[in-house]
Design goal:
This protein has 474 residues and is α+β, with helices and mostly antiparallel strands. The protein has 17 helices and 18 strands. The two termini are 20 Å apart. The mean pLDDT is 96. The structure holds flavin-adenine dinucleotide (FAD). Flavin-adenine dinucleotide (FAD) binds next to β3, α5, β10 and α12.
Length: 474
């Protein structure tokens, strides 16, 4: 499916043979116009959306990125930065064609500083590879999206990605100390410093984080890392109603507990996941919702005590059963089940995913509203997410809903869900970003003045609006 940019949106210079020759002079042998390659860079994991770039460029150095952007700035050619294309809001979709700027070859870990616990990387490093490289030193890089085996750190920085352990360890923004960025004009800047605190001027580092490739291309990042805890315990708790599971979430924190992961899965999600993995291990009959709770630390006895306290709290919320994953294999199986949910839903049918986030005590209310809206508009939803962060992924399943209702009525339902989310003190996206698909809802979260301030920032960084145009801002 391809939705086109509105007729009123800016038009860009088509990529001509002359432009291709110029790109070949900058990065000889790494300019791709072959149909199959273009097809590979035409989509991410967002719904079934698809936009062909006119050319794919694969730079290897900051100087090459700078030369490409400088050229495109001068010639008004649209450029879309791309990581591993696992995004869930269409941030990398080249909606105006133009140049797909793939950073995947900039994939070196430049420095591991074991004295100050920092790592400096290029943007094309796979998230998991950072922790793999740190493991021999007893260190790890905590932000771990479920896609960590394939997504790139540049994409994580651009989306301010969260992950399964954000509830205890925080999200991408909490680990970024310094960046090197190529601006849309081709100029190169450095932001931040290799320090843990910094009150020096406007925080351009944090402006870049989460800017979804609209303000600059990140070509280097210095990240904080941590010593890896030696022990973890994992349990799956089952509740009669999904709302009981949601209510138990905030109770755990009020009891002074800090799980290292706290994931919610409604029963339909477990059913989708088990079908996808071909297992039937966890009961769904009479169960409305599940919580996956992990605690970690360096002392086994302390972890066991924490588990007991977790169980005591969950019992106050009518927990039916708690299964401890008492071997590494059982832990791995539970994590496989949780991590496959997105793929399991996508494999079943066309779907739209909303990345709602609310104060965690409001989770049950948000879930109830999603179901109520679903009943009224006639759609099934499968909900799961990083409950400890108040982050609920709402997967709306197309099934046999006619295309015109899917395209025209569903946005009204989604708007209602977002309006309710914001009324609870929440917002549109916890970690997946706004990208291409959610920008039409930005007026729910921001006033015209706030949106105009953002447009002003975009104009300042990108006067010709060539870098990832038509993203974030409506
Ligand atoms: C199965 C699955 C599970 C997921 N689980 C999670 C999860 O738990 N938590 C979470 O937060 N996300 C999750 N995601 C979403 C996705 O993996 C993240 O958003 C990830 O950060 C995207 O990285 P990427 O390399 O694929 O980037 P892409 O999708 O290629 O690009 C994402 C955005 O980053 C921009 N970009 C890429 N590289 C750069 C750069 N160097 N400089 C500037 N901009 C750049 C692009 O223009 C685009 O706007 C999941 C996705 C899938 C498919």
């Amino acid at each position: 499916m391809q939705n086109t940019p509105a007729a009123t949106e800016q038009r860009y210079t088509p990529v001509s043979p002359e432009h291709l020759s110029a790109f070949s002079r900058i990065i000889p042998g790494r300019v791709y116009t072959d149909g199959e390659v273009l097809e590979d860079y035409a989509h991410d994991w967002t719904e079934d959306l698809h936009f062909l770039p006119e050319v794919v460029l694969k730079p290897e150095t900051t100087a090459e990125v700078s030369a490409i952007l400088g050229y495109c700035h001068t010639h008004r050619i649209a450029v879309t930065p791309m990581g591993a294309r696992t995004g869930l809001s269409g941030g990398m979709l080249p909606v105006h064609g133009g140049v797909a700027l793939a950073v995947e070859r900039m994939n070196r870990i430049l420095d591991i500083d074991t004295r100050s616990l920092q790592v400096t990387v290029q943007p094309g490093v796979i998230n998991q590879h950072i922790s793999d490289a740190l493991a021999p030193y007893g260190l790890f890089y905590p932000p771990d999206p479920s896609s960590r085996g394939s997504c790139l750190i540049g994409g994580n920085l651009a989306e301010n990605a969260g992950g399964l352990h954000a509830v205890k360890y925080g999200i991408t923004k909490d680990y970024v100390l310094a960046l090197q960025v190529v601006l849309p004009t081709g100029e190169v800047i450095r932001t931040g410093a290799k320090v843990l605190k910094n009150s020096t001027g406007y925080n351009l580092t944090q402006l870049m984080v989460g800017s979804e490739g609209t303000l600059g291309v990140i070509t280097e990042a210095t990240l904080k890392v941590l010593p890896k805890p030696s022990h973890t315990a994992l349990m799956l708790a089952m509740f009669p109603l999904a709302e009981d599971a949601c209510d138990a979430v905030s109770a755990l924190f009020r009891a002074g507990l800090l799980p290292s992961a706290l994931e919610f899965m409604e029963t339909d999600a477990i059913a989708f996941g088990q079908k996808f993995l071909g297992i039937d291990t966890y009961p769904t009959e009479g169960v409305g919702g599940h919580l996956l709770v992990e605690v970690d630390g360096n002392e086994e006895a302390a972890i066991l005590r924490q588990c007991e306290r977790v169980a005591e709290v969950l019992e106050q919320y009518r927990v039916l059963d708690i299964r401890f994953a008492d071997t590494a294999e059982k832990q791995a199986e539970l994590w496989r089940l949780r991590k496959c949910l997105g793929e399991a839903v996508k494999g079943h049918t066309i779907y739209k995913e909303e990345d709602t986030v609310v104060p965690r005590a409001e989770l049950a209310q948000l879930l109830a509203k999603v179901k109520e809206v679903g009943r009224r508009f006639g759609f099934q939803s499968v909900c799961y997410g990083h409950a400890g962060d108040g982050n609920l992924h709402v997967n709306i399943i197309k099934n046999d809903m006619p295309d015109d209702r899917w395209e025209n009525e569903l946005p009204l339902a989604i708007r209602e869900i977002f309006e309710y989310t914001v009324s609870l003190g929440g917002t549109l996206s916890g970690e997946h970003g706004i990208g291409w698909v959610q920008r039409r809802y930005m007026d729910i979260a921001f006033s015209p003045l706030e949106l105009e301030l953002m447009r002003g920032i975009k104009r300042l960084f990108d006067p010709h609006n060539i870098l990832n145009p038509s993203k974030i801002l409506p």
